[in-house]
Amino acid sequence: MKFCNICNKISATDQDHLDCVQRRSIESEAEDFKNNIPEKLNLSSNTQELDVGVKAILEHLSKNKDSDE
After folding, report:
1. What residues pair up with 11 in beta bridges, in sequence order?
2. What does the buried/exposed string (b/e) look like for 16-30 if buried means 16 or more CB atoms within 10 Å of the residue's CB?
3. If we measure between CA atoms, which residue out of 28, 32, 4, 29 comes closest to residue 16?
4. Close Cβ partners of 54 (under 8 Å, ≥ 6 residues apart)
5. Is the dihedral of CA 58, 59, 63, 66 positive or negative?
6. What is the rounded CA–CA span in Å between residue 8 and residue 46?
7. Are residues 19 and 6 in contact, defined by beta-carbon separation less than 8 angstroms?
8. What is the H or E stretch that residue 53 is in?
9. How far apart are CA 38 and CA 46, in angstroms?
10. Residue 41 · residue 48 · CB < 8 Å
11. Residue 67 binned pLDDT confidence (cut-offs 50, 70, 90)
12. 18-65 pLDDT tens trace
């Protein structure tokens, strides 16, 4: 018996718990995805285009809200 390196609880298999390993993997993938979002969207190079897109979305949402009432 040894301690899991991730959660520091006793592990009966002398290895890290499988759920702890999977959770660590998912968290690292999520962190990588979050860090790569600006690159995928090219936010650093096209801020003017982003402004136009945001304005268009807001106008669309406000039109939908007005027509629903």
Report:
1. 2
2. bbeebeeeeeeeeee
3. 4
4. none
5. positive
6. 46
7. no
8. helix 47-68
9. 11
10. no
11. low
12. 999 999 999 999 888 888 876 766 655 656 666 777 778 878 888 765
Residue 15: HSE in the Cβ half-sphere, 13 Å Cα cutoff: 5
Neighbours of 50 (CB within 10 A): 13
Contacts of 25 (CB under 8 A, 6+ apart): none
Cα–Cα distance measured from residue 5 to residue 18, given in angstroms and rounded to the nearest whole number: 11
pTM attached to this predicted model: 0.51
- Please say whether the beta carbons of 2 and 14 come within 8 A: yes
